[in-house]
Amino acid sequence: MASTEPSRAESSGSILRVRDLVKNYPIMRGVVFKKQVGTVSAVDGVSFDLAPGQTLALVGESGCGKSTVGRLLVGLERPTSGSVVVDGVDLATLSPKQLLEKRRDIQIILQDPYTSLDPRMTVSSIIGEPFEIHPKSLPQGRTKRQAVAELMDRVGLNPEFLSRYPHQFSGGQRQRIGIARALALRPKIIVADEPVSALDVSIQAQVMNLLMDLRDDFGLSYVFISHDVSVVRQIADEIAVMYLGRVAELGSADQLIARPNHPYTQALLSAVPLPDPIVQRTRERITLGGDLPSPADPPAGCRFHTRCFKAQAICAAEQPVLRPVDGAHVAACHFPEPMYDLAGGGSAR
Ligand code: ADP
To answer: Where would I find the ABC transporter domain in this sequence (predicted)?
Structure first.
């Protein structure tokens, strides 16, 4: 199990501290007599820190465990082992009632506004529901209706539409409804799980701008989950690249994009489309061989070795731990080596 100390934020200054997080799911067979026949290793030893007001992005291809980490962070699922410490409080030490209370501090926005909003509820009841669960969190002197109208206004929705239903809104507007609901309890941290992946590119930019404005206005910290490096680089202060349940590389967004050291990060970045068509046609592309192995039967040693262009015997035998590379960031690789300018001109921020 890989473990690492934080790359930047000191533990004491972190709003969120994650250590050696592991989540295994049992694979069950049988209809009447269910029997466990295996284990899916969805998350295997993930550690990171998030400083107040910062955005840490979890990036990696589908199935690498990003959403599972997101669900563990907000207490929707319990980890197999490891700890999630939100503003100094370890979630594992809380009773269900205390956990419900603590979840005010850390809210989640989900990818698909079509399925995450109840179609039978009005926008007013969707956004106002957190106030039903936590009545004391209604802003002073406001009725629920007033508080909902203010939230709608803040996320760019017309408050006159509070009696409408989700299907009467566009995809981008529905995502704004999800954002308003997540903001209702004035959280300190928002986990945004692929918040713009289901939206058209033009709408994506608007929602990204809204998220960045809200971060600055409310002093929010984000864990931003996405498979798309082009989206992540717009918002991230730090990036954790995940592969098959583990962190492959972690560091400041600028450094990691300008000088990736892990072969998997290098492959991810070399696939990012570049705006200049000539550069796009002529730049080096790193194509990975093989398919993503199953997390039910992950490769021994470095989980990436079966697809790695640098793999040697040690990679199949020994799991590399995260260690400092090239200055300030960390990579879990036996043969780290920087590559430059794979994604065009360092970070776009
Ligand atoms: P990502 O968000 O990066 O696409 P996920 O966290 O959704 O990845 O999934 C990681 C792995 O865990 C996948 O192989 C997925 O099939 C598996 N997984 C996720 N949730 C469950 C579950 N509830 N039961 C069994 N396997 C799961």
So the answer is: 16-269
